[in-house]
Amino acid sequence: MDKTEMPRKSDVVEDSATGGHQAVISQVDVARMAGVSQAAVSRSFTPGASVSATTRRRVLEAAEELGYRPNVIARSLIRKSTNMIGLVVMRFTNPFYARMIRDFTRALQELGYWTLLFNIANSEEVEATLPMALQYQVDGLIITSATLSSKMVEECARAGTPVVLFNRYTEGSNVNVVRCDGEAGARLVADALLDGGHERIAYIAGEEGSSTARERETGFVRRLEERGYHLELRERGDFSYESGYAAAQRLLSMDQPPDAIFCASDLMAMGTLDLAWHECRFSVPEQLSVIGYDDIPPASWPGYSLTTVRQPVDEMVRTSVEVLQSAIESGNSEVVHRVFSPVLVVRSSARLQPAGQG
Q: Which domains are present in the chain?
């Protein structure tokens, strides 16, 4: 072979199976076989790029025959974009967040983004996690389980990394927010329980320090007080099934137990129901009404049939992705704050006044 035809050292890789060398297939090779330009090959592998269906088909057929795979890292360096979105999540196993992760990854992938998932143990860890995410040079961040300090907001802004808080917010922070109105949802529950004639109402709160827990408790307590009822029975939970079970145990062992319990999450409500049924032998909803929050899939199972507050997760996820994509593409620094309205989903775990009566 003539020396001019020898592959360059950078164009060969070691074949571990044979011990020999194997030529690296490049965009130039694909372009030559497909009979198109190298730019057309690049556009064919870029989601949303302008390229005809015929050209894309020829490129993909040539790539398949040659065994070509695009070098994502090299492309990201050229384009100064990694096509990665950082998704920060806490309570990874909670069905509400499991569904949310599925919806986010699907929506982002349809737009050509990959999701880099950061699973944090508590809200404090987000401050240590975000610098790591920025080192990966993600194109944007979606934070679902924690709020951001002003320091971290500024650091993300300096890095030019757009951020969306999903169902979280920090008062006065200069960051995009897409959330459901937690206070409004809790007010719906307060009205439903009072209209249903309940006289000893209890509340099992979510994790202390969470903006979600704070919103739900504020809305519930304020609405009860507006209607002349003072909440005296309150137990603390952390949104988990176990904390709901333990809190309900304390409430239902009282000499005068409550006749209604509102839980700040469905998992806590399910723990409450299991304790009431299997240990305390309460009749639900005749002796005890239980209402949750989130409307996770198990809430509708016949074994629970849980009355709960539903958040429009599909719309919230779609809007979050739209806001983030717009910020990435335009570099627009204008802050977006979108608030969605919840609805009360009535099932058989609570004794409520039928609609239209009053």
A: 3-70 (1.10.260.40), 82-181+313-343 (3.40.50.2300), 182-311 (3.40.50.2300)
Measured CA distances, 32 to 22, 39, 62 (Å): 19, 12, 9
> What does the DSSP 8-state code read for residue 354?
P
Q: State the helix-helix crossing angle for 150-158 and 126-135, rounded to 10 degrees.
A: 0
- CB proximity list for 302: less than 8 A, separation 6 or greater: none
Q: Give me 93's structure tokens.
A: 């196993």
3-state class (DSSP) for residue 134? helix
**17: Cβ contacts below 8 Å, ≥ 6 apart:** none
The pLDDT tens digits of the residues spanning 107-117 come to 999 988 889 98
Nearest 5°: the CA angle 237, 295, 182 is 65
C-alpha to C-alpha distance for 83 and 314, rounded to whole angstroms: 22
Sign (positive or negative) of CA dihedral 75, 81, 83, 87: positive
**Mind listing the pLDDT tens digit for each residue in 33-69?**
999 988 888 778 766 667 888 998 898 898 888 888 7
Backbone angles phi and psi of 231, in degrees to 5? -75, 120
Distances (CA, A) of 93 to 64, 82, 150, 240, 330: 39, 28, 29, 10, 35
Report the alpha-carbon distance of residue 342 to residue 191 in Å, rounded: 14
User: What CA–CA distance (Å, rounded) separates 151 from 209?
Assistant: 18
What's the pTM value of the predicted model, to 2 decimals? 0.77
Scan for tokens 């909803």, then name that residue.
285
